Amino acid sequence: MLDIQKIRSDFPILSQKVNGKPLIYFDNGATSQKPQIVIDAEVKYYQEINANIHRGVHTLSQLATDAYEISRGKVQEHINAKFAHEVLFTSGTTHGINLVTNGFASILKTGDEVIVSSLEHHSNIVPWQMLCEKTGATLKVIPINENGELIIEAFDALLSERTKVVTVNHISNALGIINPIKYIIDKAHAVGAAVLIDGAQAVPHLKPDVQDLDCDFYAFSGHKMCGPTGTGILYGKEAWLNKLPPYQGGGEMIKEVTFEKTTYADLPHKFEAGTPNIAGGIVLGTAIDYLNNVGFDNIQQYENELLAHATKRLLEIEGLKIYGTGKNKASVISFNIDGIHPYDIGSIIDKLGIAVRTGHHCAQPIMNFFCIPGTIRASFSFYNTIEEIDQMVEAVKKAQTMLS
Ligand code: PMP
């Protein structure tokens, strides 16, 4: 059982007023709030050990390097990667995906196929499109059904010996649908394809086990899991990371540089050119510790209660339609009300201190599928409450009355 009031007191922003009302923050899918322990760790880094890493012999540089590498080890343990050097620090999911698509530019050829799904965030569509344009490979798309679930038989039918990469998100940001990634990974491997999982929306809710999943790449962002912005992780299997060329050239990623030839550093440094977000990388480890202390079993159980309550209460509203009605869902609800633009609802409830996301959620193909301009998305975290959901429902009803 979680002590929600105690948890809420860990997050200073939650006691703020917005537009004169107590903040109700339901935009966790966009970014999560940060506990004081994470904020303190960032300050402590700059106050006590700020130095560049991996290069200085001096004490501060070594302290900063140790803290950074300890954090890499925490991530390794958290996602159960076999080796610490399979864990690359990135600036976020987008960076991780682009690192992989850049690498595949030297592998794919005309006639090869890349499979993405209709449920993807633009971050996991556009880089693959750019890769296909560059290489002559073809992009294939797994369709969805009316419940917002992937049509698995259609995925099976798309697979062939031409399939070189399959990529799907673990959890959809726009609808909250949890995808059957284990099945997808196994099937893709059976035809020899590599698999990248976009875990951006999964890591706030669950602890991925990359060895059990057997995915080749797993990308996520730190800022959605109580960590700082500008942080992220790309997990890649050692064999793949050795095979892919570096993404960016620069300092830190080399063994030796001459004008005739440069040789690259070993993993993970080959993919970590330049000075990284050192403070952010270290503090991501603090955020992971915090979440593990709360406990992912507790988080899931509680968020499921929030999801069930919100679904039931929102459906009391006449003319309200929920998108993404599949069974397997994280605590995200996307909805619209008949005849009202989502933006208008979002703006009115913002005046009441309630933060939701409105729009296409960087997933325009999903909006096109449902023939809508966008939705209102309420995404819940373990620090939200049933009372907050009830207040949102009342606010949405009020907005509906004002706008009808
Ligand atoms: N994929 C998904 C499913 C997401 O929800 C997001 C963020 N909204 C991203 C990718 C991109 O993450 P970032 O902007 O942190 O790189």
UniProtKB/TrEMBL annotation:
* Ranges of residues in domain Aminotransferase class V: 24-391
Listed cofactors: pyridoxal 5'-phosphate
Q: Which reaction does it catalyse?
A: (sulfur carrier)-H + L-cysteine = (sulfur carrier)-SH + L-alanine
SUPFAM superfamilies documented for this protein? PLP-dependent transferases
One Gene Ontology term from the biological process aspect of the record = cysteine metabolic process
The reply on keyword Transferase is yes
Tell me which UniProt keywords the record has, alphabetically. Pyridoxal phosphate, Transferase
Enzyme class comes to transferase
One of the Pfam families matching this protein, by short name: Aminotran_5
EC number assigned by the record: 2.8.1.7
Any GO MF annotation of the entry: cysteine desulfurase activity
Write down the CDD domains for this protein, in alphabetical order. SufS_like
> What is the stated purpose of this protein?
Catalyzes the removal of elemental sulfur and selenium atoms from L-cysteine, L-cystine, L-selenocysteine, and L-selenocystine to produce L-alanine.
Q: Which NCBIfam families does the entry mention?
A: sufS (TIGR01979)
Q: Which family does it belong to?
A: Belongs to the class-V pyridoxal-phosphate-dependent aminotransferase family. Csd subfamily.
What is the recorded name of this protein? Cysteine desulfurase
